[in-house]
Every structure is written in structure tokens, then in C-alpha cells.
Design brief:
By secondary structure, the chain is of the alpha+beta class. It has a single domain, classed as Alpha-Beta Plaits (2-Layer Sandwich), CATH 3.30.70.141. It has seven helices and four strands. The radius of gyration is 14 Å and the shape is globular. Bound molecules: 2'-deoxyadenosine-5'-diphosphate (DAT) and magnesium ion. The site of 2'-deoxyadenosine-5'-diphosphate has 9 residues, from loops.
């Protein structure tokens, strides 16, 4: 039993499409706990810190623009092995091919040109979770 905390973001496409409740329901149905939750409109500084690992990649600037296009919901989620577990619940990065049963697979739209729109973010390691939770909460 390894109780962990992870950062989940419901990104601007998820909030704008009215999927906040549907995504929260999946997190709760899995048995994870919502420890803290807030609606956020991050400025560029927050996003530069959050996405520091992607600086310089071709999708970096469009990604930051997208993340500043509307509000997101930031959630501190706790549970047994929740870091890996939530990423499994979210599905792979590209919703075009994410597996059915996952948030991105069931609710995400064909990536097409809207490459960065995949509904959710989940921390990818214990270190990332600690770093990201510190940025958003
Ligand atoms: P994930 O969100 O699955 O952890 P990531 O950390 O590799 O994926 O990338 C962060 C975000 O950047 C991702 O959610 C969407 C966008 N992104 C990643 N790879 C991309 C690509 N090849 N083209 C466009 N956007 C991309
Ligand atoms: Mg990532």
C-alpha cells in the first residue's frame, strides 16, 4: 500500500466542453480522494514552470497558448499508487488513439490540428507530483 498524491489538471478543453463533472466522477469512482480542488487561470510563469521539461519542443508555445485560453481545474488527488493509476485512467497522450475506457479515449476528440487538447494532465512520477503540486497549490 503506497498512498500517494498526484496533480490532476482538467485542461481548458475539458472545462469548456462541460466535462469537469464527468472527469471528476471517474476519479471518484476509482476510489481516489479529492484532497483539494480549485479553478485556475494560470499565467505564463506558472505554465513555464509546470512544462519546463518541454521547453524548446515544437509544441511548447502552442501548448502554453492553449493552457492560457481558458480556465482549468487543478485537483490534488490521493490514493494507492494514484500517480501511475491516474495516468492509466487518463490514457495515452494522443486522444486519437487512446484506448476506449480511458478519459482521453472515451471523451477526447480526434487530435487533428488541435494537437495539445487532450482534456487532462496527470503527474508522471513521485518527483513530478511533488514539484507540480507545489506549483499549483
Ligand atoms: P502527457 O500529458 O501525456 O504527460 P507529455 O508530458 O509528453 O504528455 O506532453 C505534455 C502535453 O504536451 C501533452 O498533454 C500534449 C502536448 N503534446 C505532447 N506531445 C505533443 C506532440 N507531439 N504534439 C503536440 N502536442 C504535444
Ligand atoms: Mg507529461
Amino acid at each position: 500500500m503506497a498512498t500517494e498524491e498526484t496533480l490532476v489538471l482538467i485542461k481548458p478543453d475539458g472545462v469548456a466542453r462541460g466535462l469537469t463533472g464527468a472527469i471528476l466522477a471517474r476519479i471518484e469512482a476509482k476510489g481516489y480522494s479529492l484532497v483539494d480542488i480549485r479553478l485556475v487561470e494560470p499565467d505564463r510563469d506558472v505554465l513555464e514552470r509546470h512544462y519546463a521539461e518541454h521547453e524548446g519542443k515544437p509544441f511548447y508555445e502552442p501548448l502554453l497558448d492553449f493552457m492560457m485560453s481558458g480556465p482549468s481545474v487543478a485537483i490534488r488527488v490521493a490514493g494507492n499508487r494514484v500517480i501511475e493509476g491516474f495516468r492509466s485512467l487518463a490514457g495515452i497522450t494522443d486522444p486519437t488513439t487512446a484506448a476506449p475506457g480511458t478519459i482521453r479515449g472515451d471523451l477526447g476528440r480526434d487530435w487533428g490540428l488541435r494537437v495539445q487538447q487532450n482534456l487532462v494532465h496527470g503527474s508522471d512520477s513521485v518527483e513530478s507530483a511533488a514539484r507540480e503540486l507545489d506549483i499549483w497549490f
